[in-house]
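Need residues for this backbone.
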């Protein structure tokens, strides 16, 4: 086990407090959760916010499973439902690994002229980062291991366990 459910709980509280403080003046914060991995983090974070907010979801998948493909290419599978122009937008990600996904989403949403655009990620693996992206609200920095639980999966498994665990290579 890498991060216990109790430690996640405490950290999500702290992140929510920091976000509440930063957006104290907002009319409506738009949380954009990145499916599927962020759905549990999003639910816990959103329920702890006091500032007015609404939730949106966006789904992406990364290419790269096929060797000939560009490993950094990201494909949009499902867009947000409502326009974010002029809004305070916070992207809620489960984990930043290479950084390709977050960098793609920042470009995609920035082009829609939100009032502000920031990022929140529960986990970051700095050793794997290829594209540097600013994470405004970060839960935990972790080593270069595959993690599961609290929304994160391996081939759709282990997503709903309450803590975050390292999945050793022999179990993949
Ligand atoms: P990036 O584009 O390489 O930063 O990858 C981001 C996505 O890869 C995340 O949203 C996850 O879906 C997935 N991912 C990266 N590392 C892990 C991991 O250790 N466990 C589960 N999913 C991961």
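Answer:
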């Amino acid at each position: 086990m890498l991060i216990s459910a109790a430690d996640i709980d405490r950290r999500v509280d702290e992140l929510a407090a920091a976000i509440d403080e930063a957006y104290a003046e907002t009319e409506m914060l738009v949380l954009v959760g990145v499916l599927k991995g962020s759905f549990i983090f999003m639910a816990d974070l959103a329920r702890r916010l006091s500032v007015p907010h609404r939730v949106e979801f966006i789904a992406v998948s990364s290419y790269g499973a096929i060797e000939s493909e560009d490993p950094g290419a990201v494909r949009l599978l499902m867009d947000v439902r409502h326009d974010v122009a002029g809004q305070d937008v916070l992207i809620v990600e489960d984990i930043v690994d290479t950084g390709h996904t977050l960098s793609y989403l920042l470009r995609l949403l920035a082009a829609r002229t939100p009032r502000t655009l920031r990022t929140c990620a529960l986990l970051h693996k700095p050793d794997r980062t290829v594209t540097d992206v600013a994470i405004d609200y970060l839960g935990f920095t972790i080593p270069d291991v595959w993690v599961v639980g609290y929304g994160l999966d391996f081939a759709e498994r282990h997503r709903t366990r309450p803590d975050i665990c390292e999945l050793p290579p022999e179990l993949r």
